[in-house]
TrEMBL record, chains A, B:
<dbReference type="InterPro" id="IPR019818">
    <property type="entry name" value="IsoCit/isopropylmalate_DH_CS"/>
</dbReference>
<dbReference type="Pfam" id="PF00180">
    <property type="entry name" value="Iso_dh"/>
</dbReference>
<keyword id="KW-0464">Manganese</keyword>
<feature type="binding site">
    <location>
        <position position="225"/>
    </location>
    <ligand>
        <name>Mg(2+)</name>
    </ligand>
</feature>
<keyword id="KW-0560">Oxidoreductase</keyword>
<comment type="similarity">
    <text>Belongs to the isocitrate and isopropylmalate dehydrogenases family. LeuB type 1 subfamily.</text>
</comment>
<feature type="binding site">
    <location>
        <position position="106"/>
    </location>
    <ligand>
        <name>substrate</name>
    </ligand>
</feature>
<dbReference type="GO" id="GO:0003862">
    <property type="term" value="F:3-isopropylmalate dehydrogenase activity"/>
</dbReference>
<keyword id="KW-0479">Metal-binding</keyword>
<comment type="pathway">
    <text>Amino-acid biosynthesis; L-leucine biosynthesis; L-leucine from 3-methyl-2-oxobutanoate: step 3/4.</text>
</comment>
<keyword id="KW-0028">Amino-acid biosynthesis</keyword>
<keyword id="KW-0432">Leucine biosynthesis</keyword>
<comment type="function">
    <text>Catalyzes the oxidation of 3-carboxy-2-hydroxy-4-methylpentanoate (3-isopropylmalate) to 3-carboxy-4-methyl-2-oxopentanoate. The product decarboxylates to 4-methyl-2 oxopentanoate.</text>
</comment>
<dbReference type="InterPro" id="IPR024084">
    <property type="entry name" value="IsoPropMal-DH-like_dom"/>
</dbReference>
<feature type="domain" description="Isopropylmalate dehydrogenase-like">
    <location>
        <begin position="5"/>
        <end position="359"/>
    </location>
</feature>
<keyword id="KW-0460">Magnesium</keyword>
<feature type="binding site">
    <location>
        <begin position="76"/>
        <end position="89"/>
    </location>
    <ligand>
        <name>NAD(+)</name>
    </ligand>
</feature>
């Protein structure tokens, strides 16, 4: 039976290569009677090459209509000198904003087979499982006014504006508390309330929501600079970290790198639930387009497959299938299969499709 | 002979305790004929307790007149609920802004005796020596408009503004290129030019300055999220990192933590040189007021003493004396003296003044 529709946006660089392996898993699900209708379109540099913009209005409309997007990656040196509004990233940011995907879930987990690959001492990261929840449609990414103006004396002046309202903060914090309840019941709310007014409002709003609706969840406030430190010092103290768009960008990358599993980490960006409990959503590997290895068939498809597992779980309530896919990935790692980015002595080196083969066999 | 005047602002928490050890080194210098006239005043919570503000106009005027400040630390739980404008941090931020200390130098170095104390694997940090240069008087810390407004429906809206002009970027980048020339000749300029307009202007301005005045210095541009990753992954790739006020806040704390020597790291905040080549400057240990250990006499005075060494070097051109102090500190560590924060098996545990004793003896 057809369970739903998905829009594939492979994008640039290794995006298309890793998405191919997701297609194969979709084929496997179909053979088991779980069918998806997949459409595909262009985003990023790939869209710019054909249409002159990093995302067309038609693609944007299609994403909103289908509601569930599998995203590869965007960007590459070829596009570095494009003006701001045409950069590949703008395609991604427009999708986030116009689908209103305000809650970005970035799990930083250490795969047991890879604990040794972290730059941190193994005892600090073994078993690490932190969920970074990043606000994704507000803050300095979209606030107005923004731009560069010429001053009289030949100087230029650039401005960006960080804006948050109570409700923007509340809705993402609510997701954080709900996540924590299913995990270890602890939330760190991260801002710079000692310097920024958005930080003051952030702290007040999160605290008030906790006191009103989530008195059972432990809440701690932490400054963003201290959080960057604590992630390096003792990452296991965290369960769920909820933070704004810009701090979330830095802190989630820092946390991802700690795991030593950067090529392995997924993300989900979720919108609000509608009357039927359905949310618009986009799923995306945390690694980027990796121009240096694109086209060689050696990229690690696991981050993308893990993102697809999140899609199964969050968009289609297929938790059992998601578990099964994640378990297959974990088994294949235990068996010693490794793509180049996670190569280890004594392990079997495989290509992108070789990793896909191993995972499908395990499934 | 008197070589100059210094304003001591010990502040809160362990600030006063560690500054006492600097007084002793000043006494030692005096006995060798290098005399400083030291004045002392209140800042932060200590100033609030007496005057109701975290920095009085009189203290501000004195800092500007004397021009060289040794700063301890500010803040503590007692002051957490003060309104924004009265928080201890405002005293610090006012000093930075009104003395126009735009260039904040934060060396992240690993003391050989402490390489094992890092959370990173020793081979990644041994010999690490990165200089983080943070813009300190612009960006989102001071941009207008800023504040929180009430909306009609009981909601609130908070705004912060990040602003940079060409000249603000140029003057700090120039300090970065000059530093790099005396080090390993490499600058990483860090922003989010893919998202922020201030980042675009930052990148253009730094590149133009490099091409015009520093063609001999290697320049690389890096996004802030990637920089947070790379600091964890391979910190030794960096020589000088130049970045804005907010990114510098997070990245310098992250880098400091990498070294495992957080209680040991100094900082210098410098203004522009006047006609006589003199700069206003403030020197400050990177660690904060550490309320949890304040008043126990166990704080590590080394960060503050290292900051004083920077004062000798940058404000009074006493490079030989600075070298000598740094060498004494390094020797004392090699001899196994440790305060509680860096305690190691088989080492001699000492108090704040015990560490001061050992360093003075070595001098
Ligand atoms: C590509 C870029 C615009 C994006 C961001 O800054 O959000 C990326 O770094 C991310 O974290 O998804
Ligand atoms: C105390 C605080 C205002 C300050 C800052 O954010 O600049 C501190 O974190 C620092 O890095 O010096």
């Amino acid at each position: 039976a057809q369970v739903g529709r998905i829009l594939f946006l492979p994008g640039d660089g290794i995006g298309a290569e890793v998405m191919t392996e997701v297609r194969r898993v979709i084929g496997w699900l179909a053979r088991r009677g779980i069918e998806f209708a997949v459409e595909e379109d262009l985003v990023g540099g790939a869209a710019y090459d054909v249409h002159g913009v990093p995302l067309t209005d038609a693609t944007m409309a299609k994403a909103n209509e289908i509601g569930t997007v599998m995203f590869g990656a965007v960007g590459g040196p070829k596009y570095d000198d494009l003006p701001f509004a045409l950069k590949p990233e703008r395609g991604l940011l427009r999708l986030r904003k116009e689908m209103d995907l305000f809650a970005n879930l970035r799990p930083a987990i250490v795969f047991p087979a890879l604990a040794g690959a972290s730059s941190l001492k193994p005892e600090l990261v073994e078993g690490l499982d932190v969920m970074i929840l990043r606000e994704l449609t507000g803050g300095v990414y979209f606030g107005e006014p923004r731009g560069i103006t010429e001053l009289a004396d030949g100087q230029k002046r650039a401005v960006d504006t960080q804006v948050y309202t109570t409700s923007e903060i509340e809705r993402v914090a609510r997701v954080g508390f709900e996540l924590a309840r299913k995990r270890r019941n602890k939330v760190h709310s991260v801002e710079k309330a000692n310097v920024m007014h958005t930080g003051v409002l952030w702290r007040q709003t999160v605290q008030a929501l906790r006191d009103r609706d989530y008195p059972d969840v432990e809440l701690e406030h932490m400054y963003a600079d201290n959080c960057a430190m604590q992630l390096v010092r003792r990452p296991k103290q965290f369960d769920v970290i909820v933070t704004d768009n810009l701090f979330g960008d830095l802190l989630s990358d820092c946390a991802a790198m700690l795991t030593g599993s950067l090529g392995m980490l997924p993300s989900a960006s979720l919108g609000a639930a509608d009357a039927n409990g359905r949310r618009k959503a986009m799923y995306e590997p945390v690694h980027g387009s990796a121009p240096d290895i694109a086209g060689q068939g050696i990229a690690n498809p696991i981050a993308c497959l893990m993102s697809f597992a999140m899609l199964l779980r969050y968009s289609f309530d297929l938790g059992a299938e998601a578990d099964r896919l994640e378990k297959a990935i974990s088994n294949v790692l235990d068996q010693g299969y490794r793509t180049a980015d996670i190569a280890q002595d004594g392990c079997t080196r495989v290509s992108t499709s070789g990793m896909g083969d191993a995972i499908l066999k395990e499934l």
